[in-house]
Amino acid sequence: MKTRLSLLLLALPFTVLWLPAAPAASTPATVTKEGDLVVLLLKPEAEQRLRLKVVPVERRAIPASRLFAGEVVVPLSGPGGGLAPVLGGTLEEVLRLADLQAAADGRMLQAQVQIEAAHIALERAQKMLKAEAGSVRTVDEAKAALAFAEATLTAAKAQRQILGSPVGQAGGAKRAWLRVAIYSGEAALLDAKSNVSFRALTATGNGQSAGPVAGPPTANAAANTVDWYYELPADSTLRAGERVAVEITTPDSKVERLVVPFSAVLHDIHGGQWVYEQTAPHTYTRRRVQVARLAGSDAVLTSGPPVGAKIVTDGSAELFGTEFMTGK
User: Fold this and answer.
1) What is the pTM of this model?
2) Looking at the domain assignment, is residue 269 inside a domain?
3) What three-state secondary structure class fits 113?
4) Residue 120 pLDDT
5) pLDDT in tens, 68-108
6) Nearest to 260 by CA among 223, 216, 217, 296
7) What burial class does residue 159 get, using C-beta atoms within 10 Å of its C-beta: 0-12 exposed, 13-18 middle, 19+ buried?
């Protein structure tokens, strides 16, 4: 009896394996792996729902450029004047400049009072000399005091002019510049006279253009950088202290590079960059790419699919989710 019960228990697990499986649900896509390539085969109705859009990989002449970080600053000089300081977004910088401007205004007022007093003293000395109650020496000393006060006022005005418009009271249209720190060893490789393209750090579309302007000759000796300045468009909404990405072209001629829309590039959790290539009707293969930089709304590739390969733009994120089962 014990022997028959033991045989029955041993046979039980194997009988479960022979139970008929439930019918599998119909899936809109089939994921297969061929070597290192992942291939998605979509059903026509699924492809229609995703509204996929494909564009060919192009090889275009792209101006060579380098990417830098820029800071929005407010110039305090008048148009055409590049010696006055510029303000960033820190409160300490604003307060320090306001203190210097107040001190310079005080020196101007003091010099003006000295001039008025010197005029009074000179008139009194001249009247006394005319009435034969004074001396020529007294008149000469009064003239010297007046000249000294006028020279003091001239110097005070020059010092105040260097400090620019009063902080927070700049008249006229709002002006803003970009301050870009350039490594001094790289400055000779860039075109300092051409316009630059800039965009906010979170923007992915076409950037705006800014032209070079003569700013104060500032630099950072510790970082071995020099500052280049560019004037923002009048309709710019950027505020002082904001950071932007700035593309500065090089004097070299344009170079031929592979180009795809940046919206086609996907990033995995490890930082890898991918695109989906349409290799056959309803068939899409994930390809690895390496983006060198952005050129407007396009991604310039260091490596990727060949010219003419059809790359998915609209719907690429949905394909990524279908492959990894993260979509809806």
Assistant:
1) 0.59
2) yes
3) helix
4) 94
5) 999 999 888 766 555 678 888 788 888 888 898 999 999 99
6) 296
7) middle
